[in-house]
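Meet today's protein:

…
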Amino acid sequence: IATVRSNDDVKVISVRATAFDPVQKNNSNVPVSTIDVAGSAGISEFVSEELAKSDRPELTAASIIISGGRGMQNGENFALLEAVAEKLNAAVGASRAAVDSGFVPNDYQVGQTGKSVAPNLYIAVGISGAIQHLAGMKDSKTIVAINKDEEAPIFKVADYGLVADLFEALPELESKL
């Protein structure tokens, strides 16, 4: 959170919707003003919108995300994450290492060069916790890490950590859900 002063006539402000808890309009003394939308200046136009169809929540709006990293070893193993995500109604994400290895498409990527997320629950599976990945998920309310390397940096930011082989832990987790 920052206090910023700008003397420019035009200001553009962007706020990630999941970065803050929702508030009610009537819970403060702050006045709320409704403004009319200005007409188009005619210098741009809407061309099209392409939305990926999925039964799962969209990554940046999901309240639960389960992400896989290089530890998943290949794209077929992401089916283990999909099975858990199905039971939790969660979105599936990935680290840059998993995307760069071709395990999953680029739109799964969470991190500095991917999508920034702030779910209520973020489950990092087979993710070491590189600073670039942490930058994209650090605003998660609760972070759970599953990794066989007990020295993995992800455990320094995790609220809960499980040192285990993900190929044993994920099927067991799915069976308990």
User: Anything to note?
Assistant: The CA atoms of residues 67 and 93 lie 4 Å apart. The mean pLDDT is 88. The beta strands are 64-68, 91-94, 121-125, 142-147, 160-163.
